[in-house]
Amino acid sequence: MTDARDQERTTLPGKIIVTLKAGGVLFAIANVICVALIVWGYTSVKKEVKTLQVTGSARKAITSDLVTGSATTTVKDPDLVRAYQLLQASSTKIRAYLVAHGIPESDIKLSAVNTNRRYDQKYLPLPTQPSGGDRAIQPVLITTDRVAMYTLSQEISVESQDVHRLPGVARSITELIKDGVEIDSGECRYVYTKLADLKIDMLADATRDATARAGQIVNNANGSLGKLVEARMGVMQINAKNV
């Protein structure tokens, strides 16, 4: 009995010591993991990327490098062949006027001839009204299939790189009215053909302007400006001068 109890007494503390050692190791590992998580969270918050959004702008004066203009001549005649001859004569006078005022033949284009017909109209004969009728019979107007008048028109358009000459010619071409030419001249339209290249240049200018503004803001806050994160291009507006 004594030997068994002594063996029990000697083996029992050994089991308890081993269990406490294992628990201590696990607790230490858990503490290390918790501390690591806390440190990682703190450093992540400290290292969070902070951004500043600014808007840059750029403005540049441009001059149109292409101008377009058009005029329309119209003739009327009951005979179609005669109307076409008159239209040809008017178009020839307009073309000659443009060439005489410095517009190259290659810049002048004539559209297809537009033909409109106005048909003759007449009233149907009134039927014989019985005597003593109490209601008046209204005449009926009908359109016949006979052409009363042909109206022919043609557009003469000009596309030129001489942006200073064509507007003056477009204003003065109505002088041909005194020569019997029925002509309507519209306003010239100005075009800039290098808009794609202009967008690239203005985007660079706007980016530099935005960077300068951002740098000024950060310097005033005793900070430092990092790398560009994102850039977006807004809407480009083209306005007339002094508008």
Question: What does this entry look like structurally?
Answer:
Strands 1, 2, 3, 4, 5 and 6 form a 6-stranded antiparallel β-sheet that branches. It contains 4 helices and 6 strands. It has helices at 2-46, 80-100, 165-172, 195-220; strands at residues 66-77, 108-110, 114-123, 141-160, 183-185, 189-191. 41% of the residues lie in helices and 21% in strands. With 243 residues, it is an alpha+beta fold. The radius of gyration is 46 Å and the shape is elongated. Residues 4-20 have low confidence and may be disordered.
In short:
The chain contains four helices and six strands. It has about 240 residues and is an alpha+beta fold.
Topology:
Elements: H1 2-46, E1 66-77, H2 80-100, E2 108-110, E3 114-123, E4 141-160, H3 165-172, E5 183-185, E6 189-191, H4 195-220
Antiparallel strand pairs: 1-4, 1-5, 1-6, 2-4, 3-4
Mean pLDDT: 80
Helix content: 40-55%
Uncertain spans: 4-20
Outline type = elongated
Count of DSSP-assigned helices: 4
The helix/strand order is HEHEEEHEEH
Distance between the termini: 116 Å
Total strands: 6
| Residues in β-strands, percent | 15-25%
Structural class assignment: alpha+beta
Radius of gyration: 46 Å
Major sheet size, sense and barrel closure = 6 strands, antiparallel
